[in-house]
Design a protein that fits this description.
seven-stranded parallel β-sheet, alpha/beta, globular
Length: 261
Amino acid sequence: MDMGIRGKWALVCGASKGLGLGCAQALVQEGVNVLVVARGLQQLEIAAEALRTSAVDTSVLLCAQDITTAAGRAAVFALRSDFDIVVTNAGGPPPGDFRDWERDAWIQALDANMLTPIELIKATVDGMAQRGFGRIVNITSGAVKSPIDILGLSNGARSGLTGFVAGVARSSLAAKGVTINNLLPGAFATDRLQTTFEAASSKTGQPVQTLIDQRRNAIPAKRFGMPAEFGAACAFLCSQQAGFITGQNILIDGGAFPGTF
């Protein structure tokens, strides 16, 4: 299927590895030009080179910045100001016990996982609307629907973003060809998942491998997701064909969430 986005420009955040890289790879394969952002230059350069290798007549730019800071965002938009597609993504805050979190921990979580996506939306949607096409995909978390106790910082910040998107996606932007959706990953084979298992092991005393096996066996698909299949879902949401999908929270978790809605 031709997704109709060849030649578009995408900003993909947190794209040096994991789900962000999976999204960038899927977009590049559809002929989308990408500007990839992450904090670590070395890993980002490796990712960008891999993207260029798989790209066909597309441009791959990189910007090693912390997108959660005003300075980082300014550096990104100094390289390119207009984007047709924006994939927001930032590493989740650390797991832990809510009793241990002071105000600064909450502010950092909100900055990274709620306020930064809002700033990126604010900076790009009007240009998208003027051009008559725009796709914003926020990578949030399956924990928005099924919270995980040790991820309270993430639960709170990402739920705040979810509420914001529910409103702005249904504003006048929808009639101007701009869609805004959230992708909610379940358990994917990423460094973040490994970190969560290690934190749970420290809290419970159970071996990490035991926790991994328990989590995997609780998923109806009996496996963890792969970044490439997450990226494919993201690319579809960015396609011309997905123009009637907006304001949605799309859960990709191998059937782990047991609810009907």
